[in-house]
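Quick one - first record:
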Amino acid sequence: MNTSDPAVVLIEGSDFETFPAGGQLSMSRALMKLFGSRLALVGMSRPGWPTGRWTQKQISGTPHLFFSVVRSEPLARKPFIPARFAFYAALCRHKRGILSLKCGAAFTQAPEALLAISRWSWESLCFWFPGVENQLKASRYAFAKPLAGLFDKALFSALDRVDVILGAADEDAINALVCRSNGRLARERVINVPTCVDTSLFHPIPLSSARTALGIPANCTVFVTVGRIGRFKGWELLLDAFQLFLKSNGNALLFFVGDGEDRPNLQGQIDARGLDSKVTITGFQTSNKIAFYLNAADAAVFGSLLEGWSVAMLEALACGKPVVSTEVSGASTMISSSRNGFLVKNRNPVDFAEAMESALYLPDAKEISLSIASEYDLQQLGQRLAALWHPLRGDGYSRQQLRSEVGERISLGE
């Protein structure tokens, strides 16, 4: 199928290339790799790209129809207007232009996008929860948190108009989502589909080769964390724990691979603690470069307060690394305690530092991590998504047929 006849409109608050970095962008990129030009893209663009009309955009060698609703770029501080609200408003403003493509199916992971498009004239709509927590509760904006209840009410109303609901979360988290809906959302409607990892990009390479490529000394202990630098990612816990780790092992380094609105605060803490020679913020990195950093690590560490099914954690496992993490959705499935890592449930820096030390001496961690990662390979995700949602099959569909199939899966307990 060429770009003149896409099967699905993928709608995300990103430029589908580099910004904003994080799990949702990684999953969008994975979908684009799986389904290619069958996906038309609606999102953001950098300054200089036209907005408000369909254009063609070449991404990783594949042409996509692309509609930019707003121009944006990474900022060192949070924007005055929240990016999610700006994207929601831009989608509403450009409804007519987006629908002019006359593509009947839409897919999004962005709750703000779902709120904007759920009442549009789609033949079929699929929503994938990248994490099932109420995002306003972890907002950077003080005014947003009191609106969390209203946000939930609007979200559950929008989900009434969705054909297929996917959840990248474990059973406990999905059950909590259903409970939060106060009976509005039935458990059977949420299909558990964890995120995936592209093992063609993330796979083991010799530690020495990765360190040489990155200029990292061979004779030191290296910890790596990957993801957006925001408070909800728990960078303070990681910094506290690493500082404690240094008391018993001074020849160690910690790399924050990523960027985000809290980078100045993190850098300020690094400088204030005199850790500038021990802790490095790399800024945004390509997937290939992230794979090098993970392979250069002795262990990967994650301190999130909340999370969906962590893409970065899967990428670390696919590189054969032990993982130390806080207890977030999916972590207990990806980490076999005392075998390929540790879960630190109490967010205590002392306990986290001890787990970092212990993770260095797990004899079978590489084999166990690789075995777990193999269960979440990208190609398996593609097959499952195509089975769950007709528009991704490329063999035609109808809304009535899709609803019938979903009903059959529910009755069979799938």
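second record:
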Amino acid sequence: MSSGDGISIDDTVVRLLGGQPEAGFDCGHDEQNRFLYERAWDDQKERVSTTYLYHVNGMLAGYATVCMDSLPLSTRERALRIRYREVAALKLAQLGVDLRFQGRGLGTLIVAYVVELARELSARVGCRYVTLDAHPEVAEWYEEALGFKRNKLRQKLRLQEAAGKRDLSTVAISMRFDIREP
């Protein structure tokens, strides 16, 4: 491990999911655990998404699933030179950190890895943002700690769709990170 109780990139081995993941991972969220064990491999085989596994000391400590996205932005949300309403993005579709590794910076490292992946892809295909759908209780962390912004137009559309069908306070918050930012 790195100094203190934090995890550094040097402590982490990143591997592409190559089959059903090993048993024992638990991030404390049934939805993310089920996705990893029941859908990640099948979705990857179908080229719907790609999952990266993050190992620390030989243990599965976290995972990130990414896919392509198209982000609708209002005129006010767009950077000055972006003329299109829909802008290409890499979506962080799933993120899970095992309970044994939470609170040690691994989630931040995983998000940084995904941002760097988007920057690498942008040299070959159009990709301006990293997007994600944050659970309401962690949206502030993405904003304050990682510099993500809320997608106002997409969120407005999402809330309109959910109105009358579910509790709007539980609707995931659409967010973006501009990969041109430092």
